[in-house]
Amino acid sequence: MKNKLTLLIYGIILFFITLSGFAQMPILERYHISNIPGFGWLADFYVTHLVHYAFASVLIAWGGYRMMTGLMLKNKSSPPWR
Predict the structure, then answer these.
(1) Are 45 and 51 in contact (CB under 8 A)?
(2) Per residue, what are the HEC states of the chain?
(3) Residue 29 and residue 43: Cα distance in Å, rounded?
(4) pLDDT tens across 39-71, in order?
(5) For labelling, which of 22, 49, 63, 68 has a CA lying 20 to 30 Å from the CA of 15?
């Protein structure tokens, strides 16, 4: 269960980072993808910039958390004299 949750979180983060990264280029506005209802925010550079940076910071924080918990679990299982 925990592994599925981790994969889901990574998947959502990477999806929004990729989507907002492509939206920062004028590709989505040029091909009228931002005209689809609900995707109008993809045409605004500043909104996609903030979304991109927000999800990048979440990715860094989540990776740091996973790294620290992995190190703590690794050190917990080894004997103290090593």
Answers:
(1) no
(2) CHHHHHHHHHHHHHHHHHHHHHHHCCHHHHCCHHHCCCCHHHHCHHHHHHHHHHHHHHHHHHHHHHHHHHHHHHHHHCCCCC
(3) 6
(4) 888 888 899 999 999 999 999 998 898 888 877
(5) 68
